[in-house]
Structure formats: C-alpha cells, structure tokens
Write a structure and sequence with these properties.
alpha/beta; 2 helices; about 25% helix
C-alpha cells in the first residue's frame, strides 16, 4: 500500500472568527488514520455527530484529523460539520490505495 496525499482545496473561512486556523485531514478508516495520528502532538479526541475527530499539532500546524467511515456521503457530511465548527485554512485528502 502507498499513502496518497492530495491537496484538494484551500478554504477561506472569512466568516469564522476563531483564533486558530486548522489544516483538516479527513480519512475514511481508523487504519488509514493511524500513521497520521502517530505524528500528532497534544492530541485530543472528540466524538461529534457520530464522527471521530482528533485535534492536535503536527510541526507548527494546528491539525484536525477526522474519521468519517466509508462513502462519499459520510465524508461530505463530516467535512461540512468540521468546516462549520472550526476555522479551516486547508483540506488535505489522505488515504491508502
């Protein structure tokens, strides 16, 4: 297996008045998230609307890793929820092929 990192989009969140801007990295399955979560410092877990969300730092970046479960509907629902709750400056699609 190889890990595929694809930059999807840069999101300007002008309406969000939060102090932190996050890089959001959505994944479908826990096993895909394991290498990413291993790199996160100050990791905190929250279950929000049925999705497992981790916040923490990788290097100097504030990062959100979200586990949606399989399927485009799950992924789009999680992305909508995260982008509505947090100030997201970039989204990186992360997964295994």
């Amino acid at each position: 297996m190889r890990i595929v990192l694809t930059l999807i989009t840069i999101i300007s969140c002008a309406l969000c008045l939060r102090a932190q801007d996050y890089v959001f990295i959505p994944v479908a399955m826990q096993r895909e998230a394991a290498p990413l979560l291993g790199q996160m410092e100050n990791k905190e877990r929250a279950d929000i609307n049925g999705f497992c969300i981790y916040t923490g730092k990788i290097g100097n970046n504030d990062v959100i890793a979200g586990i949606s479960g399989p399927g485009l509907i799950n992924m789009s629902s999680m992305m909508s929820m995260v982008c509505g709750k947090y100030s997201v400056k970039a989204v990186i699609n992360y997964g295994m092929v």
